[in-house]
Design brief:
It is built from six helices and eight strands; from the N terminus they run E-E-E-H-E-H-H-E-H-E-E-H-E-H. It is an alpha/beta fold. Strand 5, helix 4 and strand 6 form a beta-alpha-beta unit.
Length: 298
């Protein structure tokens, strides 16, 4: 299936000040079907923003007949450019991950100094409002497209796996595939590192697929057990897959850290396609007449 790529910039405000978030769009195209409609999928990135591996992941999903929206998570701090997969890029990404919901320097204590409080005294970090707004705006963007059939899924890796999980708190999201989602077990997403993701598991009405490597030291065995136990207790419809020998970020097709496993990544991608194919739908509409011209280009 062919793909077109574009982007849209949307205004955000739940971080305490207005900023513009870039959402990268990957749109499938079927020659001869100009009125085809497709499901939408939000792809949330890891701590490095929308990198080459994330773009290729998004294209792979779009090529199966899904409109993909990939938001830039750190728009409060930097532009949409990706961070590097190196020590400094990792440090910056991890710092932004827990500083994101700072309202403004004048209304909270220094980022990273522990639990933060708004002027009224309530802890701010529990709300992770800025992340949730990013997800809501990404879903809004997909649903506003005339080529979207109104059914939305979410997926992501690392930080993005957690964000895909939180996106499923929005009942418009019918399914979420969460690759090695960090910080759910430790309640450590966002400012104050005191999120409510596990506590709100009962708000999820769609279906989840949780995927982890058994050698993932970011989410240890007891953390994975806590997530699985909580989802069972809350009555969530979910699948839980732990891959022997796989490390953290094993689907990232970038070799600087030596974790990429293409064989296991393929199996997990088939699981994603099964879930999205079962819970989301493609509607082609009537086929347009006329011949399709094939361009003689490489």
């Amino acid at each position: 299936m062919l793909i077109t790529e574009s982007h849209i910039d949307v205004e955000t405000k739940d971080s305490g000040s207005k900023s513009s978030m870039r959402i990268f769009l990957f749109h499938p195209s079927i020659p001869g079907y100009p009125r085809a409609v497709f499901p939408g999928v939000v792809v949330f990135s890891e701590i490095y923003q929308v990198t080459g591996p994330v773009q290729r992941f998004a294209r792979s999903i779009a090529g199966q007949g899904y409109i993909v929206a990939a938001p830039s998570s750190y728009h409060e701090f930097i532009g949409p450019e990706p961070l590097a997969y190196d020590g400094p890029g990792t440090d910056v990404g991890n710092a932004y991950k827990v500083e994101k919901v700072c309202p403004s320097p004048s209304t909270h204590r220094l980022c990273g100094s522990g639990t933060l409080y708004l002027p009224g005294g309530q802890p701010y970090g529990q709300k992770v409002a800025a992340y949730d707004e990013d997800a809501r705006l990404s879903v809004d963007t997909l649903l506003a497209l005339p080529s979207c059939n109104g059914k939305i899924g979410a997926t992501g890796m690392c930080l993005g796996g957690h964000l895909a999980y939180r996106a499923a708190l929005d009942q418009r999201v019918k399914a979420a595939v969460c690759y090695f989602a960090t910080d759910i077990h430790s309640h450590s997403l966002g400012e104050g590192t005191n999120d409510d993701s596990l506590e709100r598991a009962g708000d999820i009405k769609g279906e989840l697929l949780m995927i982890f490597g058994k050698s993932d030291n970011h989410v240890p065995p007891e953390g994975r057990d806590l997530i699985r136990k909580t989802l069972h207790e809350k009555g969530i419809v979910f699948s839980f897959y732990e891959v022997a020998w796989a490390q953290h970020a094993f689907i990232r097709d970038e070799l600087s850290k030596g974790r990429y496993d293409p064989g296991i990544s393929k199996i997990c991608f088939e699981m994603l396609l099964e879930l999205f194919g079962r819970t989301l739908r493609i509607e082609l509409g009537e086929r347009a007449g006329g011949a399709y011209k094939v361009e003689d280009t490489c």
